[in-house]
Amino acid sequence: MNHFLSISMAAVLSLGCFNSVQVAPTTTNPTEPSMSFHQLSATDINGKPFDMAQLKGKKVMVVNTASECGYTPQYKQLQELYEAYKDKGLVIIGFPCNDFGGQEPGSEADIAQFCQKNYGVSFPMMSKVHTKGAEQHPVYQWLTSKAQNGVMDSAVKWNFHKFLVDEEGRLVKSLGSGVGPFDEEVIGWLK
User: How many Cβ atoms sit within 10 Å of the Cβ of residue 56?
Assistant: First the structure.
């Protein structure tokens, strides 16, 4: 019976889960990152450079977004979280992405209009990127590679995957799509 139980648990664990939470290991000597989060940059949704160095001293949530996803209503919660915590040092950065199910087919202008009209999004939105594969954006290369972030390897499995980065630019957590913006994992980190 114990053998059957261990096989069943192994099967369940190997399936993965959209609600998965990966927490950075608490070690006294993490791997030295090849570069700091604050050395990265992106292009915002209006085509202007966005330097992550401006986020030093702030907690950052990086989330890949999509306009036609079952998780799209999280935009509302993300905006509410941003409003509640922006004066306490939280910045949410949205990266539109069409990697999963073709659920972000629009242009940057379409995406910006959708976010503003439907959810009143005021947190920074970037240009559309790839979160995986050969064209993976450098921000996502850093977020998903222990060799670069010095903390953990992870993978973006669907839209609205969240990464938490602390004030010093260190990766703290990787949160699956099903973990909502007001989940205790997020609120505990913010307090």
Answer: 12
Task: Please write the tens of the pLDDT for every residue from 107-135.
Answer: 999 999 999 999 999 999 999 999 999 99
Q: How far, in Å, CA of 184 to CA of 162, rounded?
A: 14
> Does 69 participate in catalysis according to the annotation?
yes
Average pLDDT value for residue range 5-12: 38
- E-only strand ranges, 58-183: 59-65, 90-96, 162-165, 171-175
| Pair 135, 110: CB distance under 8 Å | no
Of 17, 69, 97, 115, the catalytic one is 69
| pTM confidence score | 0.85
The interaxial angle of helices 74-85 and 108-119, nearest 10 deg, is 70
Q: Which domains are assigned to the chain?
A: 18-190 (3.40.30.10)
Sequence-distant (6+) residues with CB within 8 A of 145 are 153
